[in-house]
Amino acid sequence: MTTLRLNQPGMIKVLLTSCMALMLAIIMLFVLEGKASAHGYVNNPSSRADLCASGINKNCGLIIYEPYSLEALKGFPAAGPADGKIASANGAFAPLDEQSATRWNKVNISPGPTTFNWNIKVPHSTSSWKYYITKQDWNPDAPLTRASFDLTPFCSVSYKGTPGNTYSDTCNVPNRTGYQVILAVWEIADTANAFYNVIDVNFAGDVDNIAPTAPTGVAVSNIAATSATVVWGASTDNVGVAGYRIFNGATQIASTNGVLSYNLTGLTSSTAYNITVKAFDAAGNVSASSNTASFTTLAVTGPDVDPPSAPTSLHVMGSATSTTVPLMWSASSDNVGVTGYQIFRGSTLVDTVSGSTLEYLVTNLSPSTAYSFTVKAVDAAGNVSAASNTLNVTTPAAPTTYPAWSASTVYVGGNKVTHNGVNYEAKWWTLGETPGSSGADVWKVIP
Fold it and tell me: What is the pTM of this model?
């Protein structure tokens, strides 16, 4: 039997470094897996991102396509988004960090019991839900920082399990007056991440609590295999109607900024639809539903030779890493139905996903490298669309890593460690305090 003897300090150091690199790669794999599969946002009271997606907040950037993707490291306030980037979950959706007393529409709220409802795109194992609120004397014309908030959550709910597609907490909101911001945090159990939503609210004062009247006379015309036109009568409101939301059954499928018609596209042939419309105002009040207009799209006859429309709005969903790029795009339409999407890196086909999938995590990339991506839609007959817009992305440099944190090691100020894929620096002497855990103020997150 041959015995391997590690007599050389250099060889031992190489092996230890390799083991730590392998451990970090495994940790990052789990983190990225969670990041690609769990998304959600607060839709009542409407969060800043939700009001952007519905068209009430303006000039929001790409968050209008994915209000559910405000994801950053968990552990707020010790960790999580950096000061000045709290609303955008660390800068991926920078327009959300613009802050002034008049920049964002506000939802009226009162102190006391309030139900916060999360719309969850994909359920995921959860550890907690936490809610923070700004201090009474915070500065609404300065960027949101930890100093803006009371850092003790006014509502903290431990949770063991996986929620459904909706989840609600009823919490006692503290007394405040005027414009305030609530920060809602959904912490994922099996990754290092959490979802951060800010809600712009208004207490007391001149409060608009009156919802618009329900739209009337909803009717559908120009029915084709994949499209139809919806029209309705105007609602009224004590202040003013801001827009309309269009639903198929309980699912919102479109919205307008005040016009009284909408051309539905991307429908499925030979399929029944039940359309209703609701009006909303700038304070976030939503009307009752209109009457229901039911119709069935036409069947397609003869061979299918029409390709789907090209996917649009291909963009980075969140932020790229040194080896991955998360992609997202808007759905194509087809005279029969889209069955899949082809993802290309340059001219190379990377993968094909189902027709109901609008996102993809490209992996195995190289750090500090320029890439171009496009997406094409396909249908059951094999027709392929034109390419989407070309998305050019340069991956960031590989992150700096440090020795793995150990509960049995004494650290002093300036020592750097890596724990759960995150880099930390010790502020002073410490032993056994887990980086990123609640109350571990000794550790600060570093790039």
Answer: 0.52
DSSP 272-340: EEEEEEEEEETT--BPPP---EEEEPPPP-S---PPPPPPEEEEESS---SS-EEEEEEPP--SS-EEE
* Contact predicate 97/144, CB 8 Å: yes
pLDDT at 27: 39
CATH 2.60.40.10 assigned to domain 312-394? The reply is yes
Higher pLDDT, 184 or 61: 184
Q: Is 394 helix (H, G, I), strand (E, B) or coil?
A: strand
Taking a C-beta distance cutoff of 8 angstroms, is the pair 46, 284 a contact? Answer: yes
Chain-centre distance for alpha carbon 35: 10
Instruction: Return the CATH fold of 38-203.
Output: Coagulation Factor XIII; Chain A, domain 1 (2.70.50)
CATH architecture label of 216-296: Sandwich (2.60)
Query: What is the architecture, at CATH level 2, of domain 410-446?
Result: Ribbon (2.10)
Give the range among 141-155, 315-329, 421-435 with minimum mean pLDDT.
Answer: 315-329
Domain edges within the chain: 38-203, 216-296, 312-394, 410-446
CA nearest neighbour of 173 among 199, 195, 208, 139 = 199
Average pLDDT, the chain: 86
Q: Do the domains at 216-296 and 312-394 have one common CATH topology? A: yes
Band the pLDDT of 288: cuts 50, 70, 90. very high
Angle at 87 between CA 81 and CA 90, to 5 degrees: 35
SS3 147: helix
Q: From CA 395, how far away is CA 330, in angstroms rounded?
A: 23
**Residue predicted with more confidence, 21 or 240:** 240
